[in-house]
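Researcher: Going back to the complex we discussed earlier. I've cleaned up the inputs and rechecked each line, so this should be the final set. Can you rerun the prediction on the complete assembly and write out the structure?
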Amino acid sequence: MDAVWQRLDLWLRLAMPFFVSLVMALLSAVAWPLPYLGPVMPPLAFIALFYWAAHRPDLFPVSAAFAIGLLHDIINGLPMGASALLFTGAHQIVLRQRRFFAGHSFSLLWGGFTLAALAMTVAQWTLVCFLRWQIVPLAPVLTQMVLAAIFFPLPCWILYQLQRNVLGNI
Amino acid sequence: MLVHRSRSSGWSLTDVVPWRSVAHRFSYVLFIGLSLFFLILSHAQPDIVTDIRERAIDTLAPVLDAASRPMAAIDNVGNFIRDTVYLRADNARLRAENAHMAEWQNAVVALEKENRELRGLLNFKPEPGFSYISARVIADTGGAYSRGLIVTAGKVDGVRPGMAAMTGNGLIGRVVEVGDWSSRILLITDLNSRIPVAVADTGDRAILAGDNSPEPKLLFMPHDSVAQDGARVVTSGHGGVFPPNLPVGILREGPHNSYLITPSADLGRVTYVRLVDFNLRGDAFNPVEAKIRAGHRNKKK
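Model: Rerun complete. Updated structure for the full complex:
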């Protein structure tokens, strides 16, 4: 019986990165008590994707990136498949570059995220404009990106604590 | 090439095995293909995608609802503190407003009586009554690309696409997607929102067009309009989307002879909405589609 519990415990721990990303994707849409936050709410799902793809890609495969992207599209009313496509691409890029910014200093990780968020913002804006065939105002999109870059350390710290306490040496 | 090992001795999820690398590359191609499939599907068969979206949001609604409750509780505490601090000032303002309103009430009662009598003389066809469905906002969606809300009322409660969403102060948007227990509202500030409106004082008609900014603009305003800053803007009732005279906002002259609207409702802090069924025919939501359907019906006859 113990063995079953142990396996269940291990399974839950291994599934943690995906479920935390899921919760973060939902949290970025929840009606927060801060007024006027909605339009500039940093995309928490992308922060989670970046963190896990950089630190534990073995527990956050491309299928997870795709699923989180699709959920992001569904909740936010974006063209379905747009974020799924970009998140899948971002997962690949972060995975290829992870040796540069993961495991070194935090500032390098932060810098890496800022660059990734900028690239993501430009790609997403271009894709949404193309799909809707209209120019979507760029200012709120950039504001959102800048806020995401500024507040990155906070969710990052929470994810780091989760990784340390839940995953430990797994 | 994926060359990393998990740190435990027994659980190495990604060993360096050639077939794994192949599977890894294949999975990227697969998921990019799937994403493109969804993108093409949402253009080719928008109904199917809308249906998937409605079902998914219905499934997620209880989670969003549960997550938004602590947020609402925090908001309530904030409101309580603010109300307590401004109690005296609010009281004085409300007294003054009340005195003003009492004068208005007298005028309204007299006008209503006169109006009823005149309508009686003209055999005026009364407008259908309104029914309301109240719903709580559980998600503020769209991020930087669109402006929308998800609320806790759906088909089961009688919500239909095209219903007007209002707060006590005025129109905030319309229902665009309806699941069984939840629906999505497109706010008047969204880039894709177009609502026929009129300036209450002058009767000038225009289209209220959202641009994702907090202040939507007025399109096709007559050049000779004498409307001034501070004029009330209401729905015009054209196109059959909304009935006339729902308050929308206050006019403000923008740069380059443009007109902006400051919405009457505070769109940044909406917690409850009223979805209003004006008993207009459901077809009227999409005039073009309605015409096509009417055409089919006539052919059948």
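Model: Worth noting: The two ends of chain A are 21 Å apart (CA to CA).
Researcher: Good, that matches what I expected from the previous run.
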